[in-house]
TrEMBL record:
Keywords, sorted A to Z: Amino-acid biosynthesis, Histidine biosynthesis, Isomerase
UniProt protein name: Phosphoribosylformimino-5-aminoimidazole carboxamide ribotide isomerase
Listed GO biological process terms: L-histidine biosynthetic process
Keyword Isomerase recorded: yes
Keyword Protein transport belongs to the record: no
GO terms assigned for molecular function: isomerase activity
Length: 243
């Protein structure tokens, strides 16, 4: 009997100046507040997050803090609001962490009872150096995002060349495909699956519809970060798994 592959959808919100912005091809400086969505009106973070979670059934929400990624301005207040409003949700947080110390410093500014629901995402574009990558071994909930634009890795720390230092959860971030409608980079997923056969592999960028979702699962992705296809009504959260 044919077994249908299930792949988790993890909804994404990109935050800038306290608003949810629409991501297009990873050109972050040109992102604008979310204006068009079949799921929600406006760009208020909690409202958008609730709509995306409702559409996918996910227990995980990915948050990209663009003020932190672009300018180093980490702001705990929006995170506090999300955590308080979404008590059953785990936040995967990319705030441009250059090392584990930076992540721990931000977590220390949150309510201790809620900080445990935040998993730091360390982007290869942000990690300072190889030492910072190796320190992730001491951060049990660490997620490594292997970032690239086109065929070019964004990688100050040399993360792409050190699979022995990768944590158990990896994101394959194709920034040029984010919000593009170009489809997922299946070769990227398959290549990382061969290099890290035991990892939880999460794709990001380009997912358009159910056919893409099936193809990504076959290539080796267990989950996918998604926003645009949900807002545009092209992708439903059927078969969503617990986060």
């Amino acid at each position: 009997m044919f077994k249908r592959l299930a792949m988790q959808l993890i909804p994404v919100i990109d935050l800038q100046a306290g608003q949810v912005v629409h991501a297009v091809r990873g050109e972050r400086r040109s992102y604008r507040p979310l204006r068009s969505s079949t799921l929600v009106q406006g760009c208020e973070p909690v409202a958008v997050a609730r709509a995306l979670i409702g559409a996918t059934g996910s227990e995980v929400l990915y948050v990209a803090e663009l003020d932190a990624i672009l300018h180093g301005r980490r702001q705990p207040e929006p995170l506090r609001h999300l955590l308080a409003a979404l008590p059953q949700i785990v936040l995967w947080l990319d705030a441009g962490f250059e090392d584990a110390v930076a992540a721990q410093a931000l977590l220390a500014q949150l309510d201790p009872s809620e900080a445990g629901r935040v998993r730091p995402v360390f982007g290869s574009e942000s990690l300072r150096d190889r030492t910072a990558l190796e320190q992730l071994r001491d951060f049990p909930d660490a997620i490594l995002s292997l970032d690239r634009r086109g065929a070019t890795p964004l990688d100050r720390a040399g993360c792409w060349d050190l699979p022995e230092s990768w944590p158990a959860t990896l994101i394959a971030m194709a920034l040029d495909r984010v919000g593009s409608g170009l489809g997922p980079d299946l070769e990227l997923i398959a290549g990382l699956r061969r290099r890290a056969p035991g990892a939880r592999l999460v794709g990001a960028g380009g997912l358009r519809d159910a056919a893409d979702r099936r193809a990504a699962a076959v290539a080796g992705a267990g989950a996918w970060l998604v926003a645009s296809a949900l807002h545009e009504g092209r992708l439903a959260g059927l078969e969503a798994l617990a986060g």
